[in-house]
Design goal:
4-stranded antiparallel sheet, mainly beta
Length: about 120
């Protein structure tokens, strides 16, 4: 059984930093294509960052967020710097087994429960 467990969320002031972790069990992520998505209240879940053959980011986080992974720990990370109130959302990690458009949430097969990030102004 594949499980993804996010951690590292919390309350931070604008301009602060957080590092999210996504620990995976039940499969080895070394060759997996993975991503972070976020869902703010009243909004649809949106793509944030992707890690596969390359890395990709939504324009709103470029230069501030960095996606990375530690294959030995089977864990995906999202380093978030210079946080803004508009970054407030539940952040979830996901794995796609078969690829497809990396920014399309429907391409992903496995999801974590998410971790809340709240940025105060």
């Amino acid at each position: 059984q594949v499980q993804l467990v996010e951690s590292g969320g919390g309350l931070v002031q604008a301009g602060g930093s957080l590092r999210l972790s996504c620990a995976v069990s039940g499969r080895t992520i070394a060759t997996d294509r993975m991503a972070w998505f976020r869902e703010a209240p009243g909004k649809e879940r949106e793509f944030v960052a992707y890690s596969g053959s390359g890395t990709f980011y939504v324009d709103s986080v470029k230069g501030r967020f960095t996606i990375s992974r530690d294959n030995a720990k089977n864990t995906l990370y999202l380093q978030m710097n210079s946080l803004k109130p508009e970054d407030t959302a539940v952040y979830s990690c996901a794995i796609t087994r078969y690829g497809g458009s990396y920014y399309n949430r429907d391409a992903y097969d496995f999801w974590g429960q998410g971790t809340q990030v709240t940025v105060s102004s």
